[in-house]
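Review form for a predicted model. The reviewer records the input and the model, then writes brief findings.
Reviewer: anonymous (R2)
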Amino acid sequence: MEKERSYTFSFVLLLLLLLCSLGVNISLGSVNIPLKDTINALIGGDVQSESWRYIIWNYRIPKAVTAILIGSGLSLSGLLMQTLFRNPLAGPFVLGISAGASLGAALLIMGSSVFSGLISYNIANDVSLAIASSIGSFVVLLAVVVVASKVRDTMALLIIGLMFGSITAAIVTVLSYFTGAEKLQQFIFWSFGSVGNLSWAQISLLLGLILIGVILSILTIKPLNAFLLGENYARSMGVAIQRSRYIIIIATGLLAGTITAFAGPIAFIGLAVPHLTRQIFDTTNHRILLPAVLLYGAIILLLCDTLAQLPSTSYILPINAITSLVGAPVVIWLLIRKRKMMF
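Model under review:
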């Protein structure tokens, strides 16, 4: 009972921290907007400049909502992979699905340089890039699902997933070698990751796909807890191993592939947040971990995005750099303080 109260208090605290992180993210940016005007813009009150209201509703709020969705989705997909493979180094990218999304983006951006105009990026926009990335991730996801139906050993599936990632990464490297400087620069900028380029229509689509991934993940809570003690134990508990594995892979592919398609490959969050959550909540129960990683992932990516904006300046740092620079020391400190890793 006391532990349940502790969890309830922790979740309430996380929700408050999420609201505070959201407020800070919306308030700070390259344009200085007083806190009073920020609040008035949110509630429909009067502001000193209508341009501030436009900035908040058309730039800052969409970016903040995107950060929440992406942070939550990556953290959840990382938790699923670490539990399925019982590997603390597993993350949302181990199955090569995100690498497939990168290949789709690379073919769209750099294909014209390699294939002499057969593929053109003249119609380049965020929508076409998201579609190309989605197709790439779906193709790899389909290949992984087919392999999963043939392979019973989970570790073999992990290695095969890594091989898929290596193959797609090699193709991207070849494309990069032959492409021109301008196209290569466009791809590099995409690979930095970003949460600030989505319209409300794209955010709605992203939300819908992530919700499907979350629902599929909720259906696997019991199998995930059983997998912690090995597949033989899970089988003895009546878990349908193959079916559960399919659902977990599809949920991870949907989350990681969709996020990479819309925002580029954002590193660290999916690998580190599950560890951070286990250490803080001191549990491996997925009934607790699943909602907790959703909240922690959203909070951390919001804070990282705030730092990446370099408030009061016109510079924006790559969010991939900030997630690792800020998050890695925190995880290291927690592991040293706890002296053991919850897994």
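Findings: The longest helix spans residues 50-85.
Further findings: The chain has one domain: 2-338.
Recommendation: see findings above.
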